[in-house]
Model the fold of this input.
Amino acid sequence: MKELKLLKGNEAISEAAIRAGADAYFGYPITPQSEILEYLMAEKPHERTGMVVLQAESEVAAINMVYGGAACGRKILTSSSSPGISLKQEGLSYIAGSELPCLVVNVVRGGPGLGTIQPSQSDYFQATKGGGHGDYRLIVLAPSSVQEMADFVKLGFDLAFKYRNPAMILTDGAIGQMMEKVWLEEQQPRMTEFPEWATTGKKPGKERRIVTSLDLDSAMQEKFNRKLQEKYRKMEENEVRFEEIDCEDAEYLLVAYGTSARICQKSVKIAREKGIKVGLLRPITLFPFPKNKIKEMAGKVKGILSVEMSAGQMVEDIRISVEGKVKVDHFGRMGGIIHSSEEIVTALEQKIIGG
Amino acid sequence: MAEQITNKDIAREENLVFKRTGVLTDKVMHYCPGCGHGTVHRLIAEVIEEMNIQSDCIGVTPVGCSVLMYNYLDVDMQEAAHGRAPALATAIKRLQPDKFVFTYQGDGDLAAIGTAETIHAANRGENFTIFFINNGIYGMTGGQMAPTTLPEMKSSTSPYGRDVKMMGNPLKMTELVAQLPGTYYVTRQAVHTPRDVRKAKKAIRKAFENQKLEKGLSLVEIVSNCNSGWKMTPVQANEWMVENMFPFYPLGDLKVDGEMAK
Ligand SMILES: Cc1ncc(C[n+]2csc(CCOP(=O)(O)OP(=O)(O)O)c2C)c(N)n1
Ligand code: SF4
Ligand SMILES: [Mg+2]
Done:
């Protein structure tokens, strides 16, 4: 039976992970996401489901524990915030290069450097373009409510296992810290059977399993890279998710994800009260990006404003999708400041309608 | 006249006194002749066979000359990022506590870039085994200075010898790790003579068997030569190792059954 609870976004991630039958969590404290590890430790998942929870010595160790566990065919997750996610990039590249599933949560804070502990969306490039070295991508999910924080844990694991690729929940301190009512799925059992590629001990008469991202033969390495790229094209065909709000008659379009999308909902109302027909497109998957939908919208509207708590990162993907058909601009605050709905309407008027 | 005995007669199953372990694959090893890596691989394989744990073993290879160990050992293996093998092994063992889990790491891997992972896995008392091949140099990348490179020792990044004032001191990770309450067995061995090979094999077996006791980490250091990186012949390299490496890295047990050796 589903259960209704009042939880912080971060806590919803933890509870959903236990209920999704996760086998292990490895992490290192950092604001604004420490509640994830704290909640897990308080819940004693080793008693509830047998799930392993370990506070690692660093984010580097944590992601490599994720790698080791994922290579055993288990459902493993980790979480961190921006500086810690930077430290995880080498490990993520290895995990993608070894075709292993895992779930990574980035509760983004303002950067660069140590930056601020306030919410931000300035890790979009890092999340959607690969982040570490080599040609790889993460599946990137952007929740805009505590409910989606919980739901995307299961979705993230499902997609990660379907494609044998790391998935990331890209959220921010606002959603991580905010409390909302959330429907939680009933407890799923942990896996008892593991994929054929998992290192669970060589069975007599069977081939051993080797998990590696190394191939010294360039021709083989290129072949493998092509296989990865095919996988990403399949994701683009099958996994694009987005939400449309008031888009049918829209003359102008806001594109925003996560916290920004919630604020933009109010901006749509304000603008429509002023007589401006504005719609909102909310990408739910940031990779694969809803480029076809945006291209389609570009044929219908007079201009598009990307609203992000950053200097403008997603706007580049929008521009690529639009192929120069309509005017595209960006508006957003940085450094942990969240834009107001009114500011967004003003920016739309100045940068797109008037500009 | 007595009957001729042919080679075929001699090579009968019941006359066999030695057989190559089946836990080693048929793949030709890429190591330089005289390098210790191959010997240690074989000892590990033999112990796995003798303990009958081939189907219960999961190994983690490092980044270093032994990165391709998974080509030679016929057990399930994972290939870690440089230095991170103990983090992988931590997860593997915690998720599959009934398996025999080991890492195999060079001195650059374990004592430089992976220092934190080594110390914390040891300090948490993770119940797996580390095989640490200390050749005092970065073999794979062409003989650069390692944290274990001896004072005055030449390498491609200490071409006039390691000046400890400028480049720091060699790090005795095994001594360091032995101090930690999480380690149960810490020993330093070598494989350059038949006698040392026999002793090292015993240590490797003990380190595997300890996993059944669930009392913490076992670490077996093997002081080995890197004749290629040291720019010596294999024989010279072994002689140099005995004269220079062993006084600095003395062979023997540091900790047995959780007690520091006297
Ligand atoms: C993150 C990272 N840094 C550096 C390297 C390059 N690298 C590969 S092997 C190695 C040193 C290996 O030396 P050691 O661990 O002593 O192993 P040996 O080859 O001597 O057995 C280095 C620096 C790498 N692969 N990854
Ligand atoms: S370079 Fe050194 S460590 Fe590597 S195989 Fe040759 S002798 Fe062994
Ligand atoms: Mg070395």
Q: What stands out?
A: Chain A has 14 helices and 15 strands. The longest strand of chain A covers residues 102-108.
